[in-house]
Amino acid sequence: MRVWDWACRMGHEGEGIEFPGGASLIELTVEIPFSAAHRIEGHPGPCARLHGHNYRALVTVAGERLDSLGMLVDFGELKDLCSQVIGDLDHQYLNELPAFRDGNPTAESIARYVYRGLAAAIAQQGWKQLRVARVTVCESERSQATYWE
Questions:
Q1: Angle between helices 107-125 and 75-87 (to 10 degrees)
Q2: Residue 137: is it exposed, middle or buried by C-beta count within 10 angstroms (0-12/13-18/19+)?
Q3: Helix H or strand E segment including 4
Q4: Which of 52, 56, 70, 99 could form a disulfide with 37 if both were Cys (CB 3.0 to 4.6 A apart)?
């Protein structure tokens, strides 16, 4: 069976859909923009001074089982949950937040913060079919950090 033919079939009411041929993995990625200021204490260059970024968080979730609609999770629901976690960072001076009290709010540490916050939020939602695969935080078009566990 071609993948497209399989993907177009409807699942039975109330049942999830499994991929043909055994276990497979599907990933979904959403992009959440946010703006924040920070400084990197101890940095030998201009990053030691207060400055800001228009960040983009690329959040990738993964799972092996689709719901009866053929979706891992609704994109809108995933974006809403990601926005709740990332909303705590938006338009903030990151160095003042408790999450970054013990270290600099680098792209790496922001990615870890979003990853762990979203993993907890997914568990709280009861979305057992879903896990965070990775989080990439982009400081600019050419600079990004990715975190996964």
A1: 130
A2: buried
A3: helix 3-8
A4: 52
| Integer Cα distance of 147 and 30 in angstroms | 15
Query: pTM for this one?
Result: 0.85
Per-domain residue ranges for the chain? 3-147
Which is it for the CA torsion 8, 11, 13, 16, positive or negative? negative
What does the pLDDT look like over 74-86, one tens digit per residue?
999 999 999 999 9
Distance CA 117, CA 138 (A): 18
- Alpha-carbon torsion angle 67, 72, 75, 81, nearest 10: 100
Average the pLDDT over 33-42 and give the result: 98
Closest CA to 138 of 29, 28, 32: 32
Rounded to whole angstroms, the Cα distance separating 137 from 146 reads: 6
What is the CB-side half-sphere exposure of residue 42 using CA atoms within 13 A?
4
Which residue's entry shows tokens 């400081």?
A: 139
Q: What is the spatial distance between Cα 46 and Cα 62, in angstroms, rounded to a whole number?
A: 38
